[in-house]
Design brief:
Length: 285
């Protein structure tokens, strides 16, 4: 059986996230492989996969912040808010002031309400939004709260704008391109997107599928848990309680998931404070 852990892949353009999962399933010799948030086929960069027991960590890793490098093309709007969609409108960018571009992007930093792109994977009445768009339906999604922690403008060489950003889970970079273009009155879409980090897992750890080979790179589940969550080292008595799902002293785990470890360093569970005790969020033994 494959060891439990994470595989940090540098996804190439043209592949779906499912393509990457299928490849790692073959390499690891197990069906128990999943990913912590999709990347569009156009996008490249960090895709975090879990193998065996580590698949149960993925839902928690999906909630962490992410980082991206992106290129925006102003003056052209598309059906998908990226270069893969059909062009719906064009406008000259000769009159756009680069200072207005920078000011427009600065307004996205912080807690904002963002309307997801219509071709997102969000379900509308049980059906993915992108599937409804593909079937010719008009899809209107409600705005959602997201946070852009940092946005750096590297270059404004109109009609192109190169940026980097760190943002909360659920943020659509394509929507940033769309909304910037709308604010400037010329439209806009995303022409390139590279995810540079998912939480603590960045491009320095990532390997392409070709580089993985049969010796696929893994972050052991204990290392992944320590890197991703506040860590708590238990004594033998406390570890025994965790193994049967009992509560712990609330002082051991505060708000949000905390990774708890046995004295020998093995990862046992995620715990968080709930009322008068720290209770298990997920147990891995």
């Amino acid at each position: 059986m494959a060891d439990s852990g994470l595989v940090v892949v540098d996804k190439s353009a043209g592949m779906t996230s499912h393509d990457v999962v299928a490849r790692v399933r073959r390499l690891a010799g197990t069906r128990k492989v999943g990913h912590a948030g999709t990347l569009d086929p156009m996008a490249t960069g960090v895709l975090v996969l879990g193998v065996e027991r580590a698949t149960r960590l993925l839902g928690h890793l999906m909630l962490t912040e992410k980082a991206y490098d992106a290129t925006i093309r102003l003056g052209v709007s598309t059906t998908t808010d990226d270069a893969e969609g059909d062009v719906t409108a064009t406008a000259p960018t000769d009159g756009v002031d680069p200072d207005d571009v920078r000011a427009g992007l600065a307004r996205f930093v912080g807690d904002i309400e963002q309307v997801p792109t219509a071709v997102s994977a969000i379900k509308v009445d049980g059906k993915r939004a992108y599937a409804r768009v593909r079937d010719g339906e008009q899809v209107e999604l409600a705005a959602r709260p997201v946070t852009i922690h940092e946005l750096v403008v590297h270059e404004v060489a109109l009609p192109e704008v190169r940026i980097s950003l760190r943002c909360s889970s659920g943020t659509y970079v394509r929507a940033v391109a769309r909304d910037l273009g709308a604010a400037l009155g010329v439209g806009g879409h995303l022409t390139a997107l590279r995810r540079t980090a998912v939480g603590p897992f960045d491009l320095a750890l990532a390997r392409t599928l070709d580089d993985l080979g049969d010796d696929y790179a893994q972050v052991p589940i204990a290392d992944a848990a320590r890197a991703s969550f506040p860590s708590v080292d238990l004594d033998e008595e406390q570890a025994a309680h965790v193994r049967v799902g009992r509560g712990l002293d609330p002082a051991l785990a505060g708000k949000g998931p905390h990774a708890v470890f046995a004295p020998d360093g093995s990862f046992l569970a995620l715990y968080e404070q709930r009322g008068a005790q720290a209770r298990p969020v997920a147990v891995f033994v």
